[in-house]
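Data card: per-record layout.
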Amino acid sequence: MYSKEFSNEVAIITGAGQGIGFEIAKQLCLKGAFVVLNDVDEKLAQDAAAKIAGNCIAVAGDAADVSFINFMVDEAVKKFGKLSIAIANAGITLFGDFFEYKVEALQRVMNVNLGGSFFLAQAAAKKIKAQEGGGSILLMSSVTGHQAHKNLAAYGMTKAALEMLAKALVVELSEFNISINTIAPGATVTERTSQDQAYMDTWKRITPMGRAATVEDIANAALFMVSPASRHITGQSLVIDGGWTSVSPSPY
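The structure for this 252-residue chain is written out next.
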C-alpha cells in the first residue's frame, strides 16, 4: 500500500524517458501525483508514460527550447488544472579535453543544462505564483559541481551554476511560498551504466558505501525535496553519492 502524500499535486519532469527522471516520475505517480513526463525522444517519452501506473502523460520536446517549455507548462495546467512541482532533470554530458573543447559543445551544454533549467524554473514559478498556492522547484546538479572530474569542466561548471541559481532564486520566490533546491547525484546505475562492468567495479571500489547509487536512491531524495516534509528547506543542495565527495578518489 503506497502513501499518497502527493495527492492532487501536479508535476513536470524533464528528461524523464529513462533513468533517474523516469524513476522520479514513477514514484510521484505511485504517491498520488499527476505527472507530465517530458523527453526529447517522443517514442521514449510515450513508452515511459505508458509504463507508469497512474495519471502520467507524455509531452515530448526539447527541454532547452523556451517556447516548448512554456507550452509544456501550459499543457500541465490545461490537463490537470494547476502546476505545483517542476523538476529540471534534463541535461547532457559532453566529455572533452579542455584544451580542445569546441565552442559548439560548450554552447549546447550551457543551453540544455543551464538555459533549460533556468527557463523551466521561470515558467513554472510564474504559473505557481499566479495560483497563490505555493509549490516546489528542483534542479538537478551533480557531484561534478563539487569535485573535479577529468574532461568534464564544462559540465561541472553548469552543475555548480545550478546550485548558485537555487540560492539566488530564494530571494525571488520565497514570498510566494515557492521553494527551490538542487540535488547532486554521484555515480548512478542507469540503463546507460548498468552493463558497464568496469564502471560498476570502479564505483564499488571508490565509494565509501561500497556501491554506486540506484535510481531509487536518487528518486527518494528528489521526492523528499519536493514534498510537504521539506517546505522550510530552500536554496540548498543535497548530495547523494554514498560518501564519495568526502574522500573524492578519482575514477580514472
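Known properties of this structure: The CA atoms of residues 200 and 212 lie 7 Å apart. The beta strands are 10-13, 34-37, 56-58, 85-88, 135-140, 178-185, 188-189, 213-214, 237-240.

See the next section for split statistics.
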